[in-house]
Queue: 3 jobs
Job 1
Amino acid sequence: MNTPPLAGGAAGPDALRPLLGTVLDALRDGAEARGGPLPAGGPGRVAARLREATGPVLPETGRGPHEALHALVRALAEGAADPADPHCAAHLHCPPLALAAAADLAAAALNPSMDSWDQAPAASALEARTARELAALVYPYGPDGPAHPYGPDTSVPPYGPDTLAHPYRPDGPTPPYGADTSPPPYDPDDAPLPYDPDGSPHPYGPDTSPSPRQPHLSGTPRPLTNLTHPYRPATPTLPGRTHEDDQPDALVTTGGTESNQLGLLLAREHARTRHTEPLRVVCGANAHHSVHRAAWLLGLPEPLTLPTPDGTLDPHTLHTALTDLRHPGSPGAPAVPVLVCATAGTTDTGAIDPLPTLADLTRAHGARLHVDAAYGGPLLFSATHRPLLDGLHRAHTVTLDLHKLGWQPVAAGLLAVPRAADLAPLTHRAAYLNADDDTEAGLPDLLGRSLRTTRRPDILKMAVTLQALGRTGLADLVDRTLAAARTFAGLIDDHPAFELHSHPTLSTVLFRPTGADDTTVATIRRRLLHQGRAVLGRAATPTGLWLKATLLNPHTTTDDLASLLKLVEGHTPR
């Protein structure tokens, strides 16, 4: 038997080329055989077809590369839930761009391991550079001044007259990248209180912020007003740190779950150096389940979960909770170190917590702020929708995820911080990977860039996409996708047989047949799944169970959405 060829080296491409032809043919054949967004028949039938098509996974004698590739890839494609189908819209499960998938092939062929420089010389440099540029989108001002991370903006002014579509147009033309007149950097544990929380019924003066979106109400979202410019993140310069350590940075992760865990870990380590009590995590009931799992994994107390009946974390509720955590007789000082976890794009509705007001509260109470922007973070690319993330830059850590509204193959997550020095708690030594004398000699230390050791160069597909499309190209994809959600909400609102939960903030739309109870909603969803006709999610809210359409396909048309609604209508029990 001949030794199978390798994917790398100068001969690798020639070995790959005929195999890729087989893979692409199998992908096409499988998709045509499936004929819809999901294989019909349910779990049992799908598993049976897979067994029939593939045979034993480990036969005594191999069947050869082309036959094995075609059989298994075709079977997987035929049995796949295909997010490229406009009727596959249940989850934050995006259809990846072809160019990103092609870049992922190159990453697999080269196979760098991102745990030491001698395994990933160029890949580690690309990761460092790309991660910093993405972090600068979240934290556009470094400690040296208000210069925009991409230099002077020569594009069409994003906040000038007539450039923002309703309902996201600010009231004034002042751009958010104006002069920095914000307070100086602060440390959460040493920050003076800007007010006495006990001296006013409302901790931050009259409430002029938009109220949280009410569920199950028609009408368009309220326009954003009084946009404030960003100010420097609340992280003081530490003695002895280099200029690079004071710049924004990001870690590449497997997605929002890992990023949230890292955000809690950094907060825990920060608290350990200043407190004897364990870190307390405060979040809304709208927070992603990974926040609770991360607290469990890190040995922290169960998070204090605040009710979010309107879908977003209410500032008054948070103020009360933070006040209750204070030491008696010590105004403003928390009894324990506190991390508040806010969300910019909830899983169920796509709602965004009132970030500026929550940042004011956490600062006033001496707490840290983590924002899970796994879903909503890519709005930073869009001049039209970026104002929805006003206040994001004030968080101590921010979760991002480009395998949602970034159209990357899984995995493509990040955790952004305002200063690279904030990642110091992750420093770790293993003599065979990052010996002290190697680091002192100038070899980059990669082990502190992740809790994982071996990891793929997932940054390549992200960097290729960023460079190929640019910020305006990505903004167009974001804007198209959010516009499709508004279109779908309009179709539902105008249809007498359906009711709309609320107009979408991002690309998630909740709806159900008028008057349908929870059992009916669940039955409709499962019927569509079993027949392979449509993949819709489900969301439980205070007003009952709803069908959930999470639109992430920028190619979706109005006709696609109308036919999806017709499918649901046709599967509604009479």
Note: Residues 39 and 45 are 9 Å apart (CA to CA).
Job 2
Amino acid sequence: MDWRHEGPDPAALVRGWAALVAVDEDGREEIRLLGRDVRLLLDSPLADVEIHALWRTAAAYYPVGPDTAHGRAWLTGIERELRPVGGITATGVAPGVDRNEVHAVTRLAHALDQVDELPLEPVPVDAVRNAVIRVAEKVDGELAFRFLLHAYAAYGTPVSESMYGEFRRISESLGHGAFMLETIGYLVE
């Protein structure tokens, strides 16, 4: 558990993180990328329940209080915290992603299965699988790929050598560094 941010509520965590990373250009780019992802999801056709499932899975079910906003309300709160540090652009325009990559992400999403018991706030694996597929098909393939990596880790879904090769191929085609696959490296059989 290397989480080093604390605060009384999720908005304070976002504020604290943004203040921490905004000190250099790499950190400001991280803020802009989060802002882009937030805007893509806010502008998407996804239902609030789908956004909530994806965000909670990507956060590894980090504990939140019962009064924490869900779905678009949560994303709007993040957007509000990022705006003062320049993390929100006018639109969340997604870069073009090859349709073959979308199909590959969708194939890997269909193999997502729950192995580990989820602590805290379980979200059914089917809900996350379907939300990842909708992001790939309707929003942005690269964002769907990142959500898929988090989902595999959250559910402990085993990854065969051939599947890992497919993950690596997609990751490389999207321009990600080798670090990106560390999220699922321990799941390879």
Note: Helices lie at 10-21, 25-42, 48-58, 71-82, 99-110, 125-138, 141-155, 161-173.
Job 3
Amino acid sequence: MKRLTEEGTRSGDGAGSAVWAVRPHHIAAFGFTLSGAALYERLRGGRVYVLCDPSPLLGRLTTVALCLVAAAAVMAVVGAWVVQEKAPRHSAVPWVFFAVIAALIVAADGADAYGEREAAVIAAHEGSEGAGRCGEAARIYEATPGWFFW
């Protein structure tokens, strides 16, 4: 016989082990911790590339990466709300939110890694053309290191 308690489901007379239940604050803490750490990494900066010509691609990639980090934080709020208010019957629902939050952070790191590769190619191409001096003001692109793409 199983009975529902605040700690989860217990079997028998309490002699069995409790099933670990995912609470809404677990999802929120996971999402906010990953999003906060990812945002900190992006604000801290990384390698610097000096570019003579503006690259709209690099600007879009930076925007996409920041939007993905913000989406992970929003997904943490949505996941906590769904688990709290909707009480899904299937126990995999909270784990799906964990996976989506992690996937959004990995995608943000992927966008940043692609931007860094593009910046390196542009900087190498501009450096090979003559003395490497810009005819106008140089633009600085700071690549963020990320955790998943080296």
Note: The chain has a mean pLDDT of 81.
